[in-house]
Amino acid sequence: MIDLRSDTVTQPTAAMRRAMAEAEVGDDVYGEDPTVNELERTAAAIVGKEAALFVPSGTMGNQIAIAVHARPGTEVICEARAHVIEYELASMAVISGCMPRPIATPDGVLTAPLIEKARRAELPGLTRAGVIVVENTHNLASGAVTPPEHLSAIADLAADAGIPLHMDGARLFNAARACGVEPSQLARGFDSVMFCLSKGLCAPVGSMLTGTGGFITEARRWRKRLGGGMRQAGVLAAAGLVGLTTMRQRLGEDHDNARALAAGLASLDGLSLDTPALITNIVYVTVSGARFRNRQVAAELKKDGVLCNVVGEERLRFVTHHGIDRAHIDAAIEAARAALARAA
Asked: N or C: where does the chain have the smaller number of CB atoms within 10 Å of the terminal CB?
């Protein structure tokens, strides 16, 4: 199978498996796992923050950040299709007692003027903003990148307004690669940043939540409260360390493959491309025409050994990642051509 459903399907590399087998471990709840401690120090340094916390998933990292930053009864300002709204099971309401203040954008890119327009006035009868969340890259917006100049303006607005600022940077390193900057530049001005180890970096499990030392101290309590305390977690952290130190540099290959895939799919009758300003590793296409629907096309693709995700009633999502090369991309394009012909 050519599995293009997500970059979460990546397998740990041979170097990761060796590191996991040889990892020095201890009880992380006591702060005694040396490999976890090294991973947290490394992650914090890469994004320019004081401290970091190893968490089982990106969703947990985002929800811990919201819980630490916001208070019950406040709003989470975010893009209307953000992961924290669409794919985190209303956790901001269940866990933190918050509600979203969604901002619709044409391209998934939040800007300071849009946030300022959506922010409620400081009046007794209006809900206050508890935290601003920026997703970078933006999953449902075809991996759209929020560039440094927009992030800087948002950080200035948040600081002036006294509103905490969190980045859902599940694919932060893809954004940094696309912009040609260091991850720390994109993270500058954010009170907290979450990024995943288990997507483009190929680790089997885990995400990192970063911020100030005080923020991480409180985040650690929330991780325990949510059942995320881990014991000899160095076995997992070792793979994350390998990912951080060796896999970030190769993400450009995924972007090149995604561009080739996007161009090939866009050339096919019956598919139209959702194209962001910068293509990272996520490609969305809309299946058009009354002759067939996206689920039919996905089913036909599967017959030819290509997996993709069905999103809504019309869209298909393809994600490039480690283990997918140009030959796989060419094969996927030809499979799509055949699938569309059969579906018709």
From this structure: N
